Description:
alpha+beta; seven-stranded antiparallel β-sheet; 14 strands; 39% strand
Amino acid sequence: MWESTVRADQSITVTAAPDAAWSLLSSPQAWSARPGGCMTFGLADPLAPVGPGEEPGRLRFYLAAGDAGAYPAVLTVTGQTPGRQLCLQTSGGRATWALSVEPGRRGTALRITATWTVGRPARIDAEAELRREVRGWLAALGEIADGRRPPAGAGMPEALRQACLTSPPPGPAAEASASVEIGLPLETVRGLLGTIELGRALQPASVLYFGQVPGTPAPDRVGGMRFYVRRRPDGVLAGQVSLLAAASPGGRVTRLVTAPFDEMTFRYEPVGAGTRLELTHRSPGQRATEADVHPDQHAAGVLAVAQQYKDAIERLAGTGG
């Protein structure tokens, strides 16, 4: 498909001093002022070496409310002039932003220049939408800078939280289950499930970043959220966010609040001196009769994941081979 790049370049003047305006624009909290609900936070704990040009501290996780749940992306800081300008782009470069402060005689100018790369048929609508978004964002930032609106907190904006909590629940779906026996007591297995250590042990090669979403409950509590960053085969960094949707002494349910909204149910019970762990995976919007979701292949995939959990848990507990 032919593509086109749309651009918006707008500014407003505020009474705030340049240093105060810069402190606002360069902070992650500035993104919480965007229309519709959005947040960013730094990625400072890589689980694997960063790629070319990806210096530590130059990556941010971006999460915004969308039409269907929440939408994640990974932002790279591509340039910064302290006190004046901050430039970012999504991994892959399909969206860019330049936030700048320009001192002047009549006040301080806040400027946002943004671009989106879209399919050519969507150009006109996308350009209008981008201009509305930038205009609304600047208006909110101006009110914060001039003290007419309280600054956004460090946590998750309420609109974004609701988008995550009301993400599409699994409906008709491809479903498969598998179980394994782990040579460890139930309490040990239950204590390791959902921990950052287990997350790192499960996918050390493909997951670059993994941790708790700021401003959400602890990951072992219902409502807790985790973020993940993976590098796709094309080199683009892709993000996902999961939610602990339910928990009981005998199990837990985790759901992706970002596409593809898969759900995983964990059930565990003692078996002799060990633990039986059962996993049930559901892919909403896909039926087991579809050609690309063959029941046998789905079941084999879930069994492989269950075996990965068994191996990682036993390795962390020091009982693996």
